[in-house]
Amino acid sequence: MCRLLGFLSPTPVSAADLIGAAQCRQWQDLGRLHDDGWGTAWIDPTAAEAIARFRTPTEGADDPRLTAALDDEADVGRIFHLRMATTGMADLVENTHPFLADGIAFAHNGSVHPVEELRALVTDDEIARIGGTTDSALVFALILRRVRTGVTLLEAVVDTVRMLRADF
Question: pTM of the predicted model, to two decimals?
Fold first, then answer.
């Protein structure tokens, strides 16, 4: 299982501003166990999709880039993800969360089995749009499919989760 941290704020703040640097170090230290990569996405009005992202398949516990993102980078919204890969899912940058497509960033904590059955629900074009091959990327592709039909993001997530709970 992965570890997630996120916030929204009416004014730009860092994670350390909100929960303190000591709590950020404790969360970052989880990267010793959740060591299959880390990533972050944040609201950036200057980015093409208004969301910017950084991700790496390397451990985050001692990564100064993650420390800086937690302590120094002020944003109105940001998510952080420490990855513990699903068994058999490669430690590649394209499999590292958060995924980003259509102006939506997505990070997931958990796994969906059997992955082969989940993969059968997603088209090759949808997989290419996400860029990853993990169960989490496939879940994101299913959410985006629903969003493209005109439902809200919340409805798309709820519908997808209901389908996954019923079928998996």
Answer: 0.93
